[in-house]
Design goal:
The structure is a single chain. The protein is an all-alpha fold and 208 residues long. Helices cover 71% and strands 0% of the residues. α6 (95-112) runs parallel beside α10. The chain is globular and about 55 Å long. It starts with 5 loop residues before the first helix and ends in a 6-residue tail after the last helix.
């Protein structure tokens, strides 16, 4: 799947998740359902068009190619993920608490998500490249999202003004690694274990 530049991905991932065009929303809803049920490889634009109740020409007018349709679906889910993450940590008073609960919420959401978690189970060979060697755009967007929050916390809590980007990237990479391969000597089977891990190993990074 071809991706746009990192800046474009970031702008689109941080934008409101729902397009203004009602037909585009229907197409993305249908694409999410189609890709979740049958995966990316076995799904065609015709399949999505039929599920959405529109013509294939209508789909192509809005998304041009199947790759663009897949990208649009993933971007909308990433934007929804950021909104849910914001909601999960908004009421917490300190950045350390938000890092801990944000890590827990991120693991919970991605593991349970019908597309993210589902594709890892049914089509890992298709999905893994976009979470690893070809995942630069989505990684950069997620790191930038977290960097913005860490920088705001620095200002609000009077922390040193060093660039929080390296800490943000390390946190994102750790979360992705647990999503891809949860097995290991670190127990992460439930939210209490994830919370204990984040409190012990991730939150102290804010003081590094």
């Amino acid at each position: 799947m071809r991706t746009d530049t990192n800046d474009s991905w970031l702008d689109r991932a941080l934008a409101p998740p729902e397009p203004e065009d009602h037909t585009a929303r229907r197409i993305l809803d249908a694409a999410l359902e189609q890709f979740t049920l049958l995966g990316l490889r076995r799904s065609s634009v015709d399949d999505v068009a039929k599920r959405a109740g529109v013509s294939r020409v209508t789909v192509y007018r809005r998304f041009q190619t199947k790759d663009k349709l897949v990208e649009g679906t993933l971007l909308r889910e990433l934007s929804r993920f950021f909104q849910r993450l914001d909601a999960a940590v908004a009421a917490l008073p300190t950045m350390k608490e938000r890092v801990v609960e944000g890590f827990v919420a991120a693991l919970r959401h991605t593991r349970a998500h019908p597309l993210f978690g589902g594709l890892l189970r049914i089509e890992p060979e298709v999905v893994l490249p976009y979470l690893t060697v070809q995942g630069g755009s989505s990684l950069s967007a997620t790191v930038e999202y977290l960097t913005v929050h860490l920088r705001r916390a620095q200002q609000a809590e009077g922390r040193p003004g060093e660039d929080p980007r390296p800490v943000a990237e390390l946190m994102v990479r750790v979360a992705v690694s647990f999503l891809l391969n949860p097995a290991g000597c670190i127990e992460m089977e439930d939210e209490d274990q994830a919370r204990a891990f984040a409190r012990r190993y991730l939150a102290p990074l804010l003081d590094a």
